[in-house]
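Re: the request from the purification team.
They wanted to know what the chain is likely to look like in 3D before they choose a buffer screen. I agreed to run a prediction and write the result into the notebook, where they can find it.
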Amino acid sequence: MNPDFINPLVLAYLGDSVLELLVRDYLVKESELKKVNELCQEATHFVSSLSHEKFILHLLETDFLTEEEVGIFKRGRNTKTSKRDTKEHRYSTGFECLIGHLYLNEYKDRIYEIFDEFKRYVNETNLRQI
């Protein structure tokens, strides 16, 4: 299965699941939160389309992504979705598409590098106030 030939929305669907699992794993293992509702509330700082949009813009400004990764992001970003076709949603879809593509290519180390940067970014920015 070659991810280059998979619908970008399918890649985003998978990438969303990968991100959700990474966030839950991180919060359960590394936070002091023990109640499910607290974990869910904290997870919203990581899994919202706004946080994805802000983070991917940060990555694009810092040259963190390779040219190929930027291309995959743009492929997902430029895919027409349904009614929620806002800039925020398109950028979030592009980010999730990238993660799904990396996952199917079994580039797990790269996913962890991106996720480590994502954790740092969320924890150091005002995304917690949103």
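For the purification team: The helical segments are 8-30, 36-47, 49-62, 67-77, 87-104, 108-124.
Please add any questions underneath this entry.
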